[in-house]
Fold this protein.
Amino acid sequence: MVISEPLHLDFSLPNTLDTVRDLLEKFQKQDSFYASLLFCEEWLSGKKEFLFYTSGSTGKPRSMRVNRRRIVASVESTASFLDLKKEGRVFICLNTQFTGGKMLLVRAMHLGLQADIVRPTNQPFVFSNNKPYILASFLPSQLFHFFQLNENFEFLSNIENILIGGAPLRIELLEKLSKLQKCRVFETFGMTETLSHVAMKNLNGSKDVSPFFETMPGISIKTNDADCLMVKGKVTANKWLETKDVVQLIDTNRFIWKGRKDNVINSGGVKLYPEEIEQIMVSIFKKSGFNFDFFLTSLPDEMLGERLILVIEGKDYDTEKIGYELRKGLHAFHVPKEVLFKSKFERTETGKIVRKI
């Protein structure tokens, strides 16, 4: 079955399970709609345990089994935080084989909402028909394409709550999102082990854009000896989950994300957080007229232990100008010692750059 319009499901109706089963017969198993419908059938049939897959951003994707109670706890935490009502429509354009897309489906089913599902693409907006939605989640890459192709923000303005996650947000995207006035925009923090987000950061509206992530209702946080975030709540079966995310705690429910522990570089005894430095570099490159994707990593160094390396995607750029601009805008410890070029970066399903030279 070929479909160009969104796949529409109304979970407020009592016979939705029958509708889902009828639709399953119309799609081939390799179709992303089939995967969405199969998950819906399992959920609506009362299945107690489900298989979730990690994105593979820090290694090979792996599976984990999760019981229904933990999934419902995540849904209800989000509903409480966003004050979602049991009516309205959800726009689903994430891959429902991964956690973000799966959890959107569950939110729609558990809250009895309508759902418009489109196949995963960087341009899902053409299927929206500018309908009103109470919730939608996007990857940064999807919103980046939206702003490239659209001068007006009518579609986004029709969504009450926009959640963004899966990959870091570039400064130019944050600037555009901060100007949206008719909706609420949040950057999310979470992982498969926490069943989607456990904290959100406000990116627009009457309040100032927040530098902090604020935890969801029912979530407790602390740090370990390595300053990595630890999380506990119903979504973790009320057990402390140790993450590999280095944070700065502000208080009992707010924190600043600094980067992944796996990516921390010890150069000459100084700990460098690549993701933190990259955010500053994005601004420097934008002002200097450079437009490329990049990441920071390290190589062994006899004197420093590890030396900071800048890896740029694409053709050769003027390394002398790059170095000059970075020396002007960065602390001396944060200036890369070397610049490398790679024709094309490897990326995960959610658009995260795989940090391999």
Notes: The longest strand covers residues 241-251. Residues 7-258 form a domain with the Rossmann fold fold (CATH 3.40.50.12780). The chain has two domains: 7-258, 264-342. The chain has a mean pLDDT of 89.
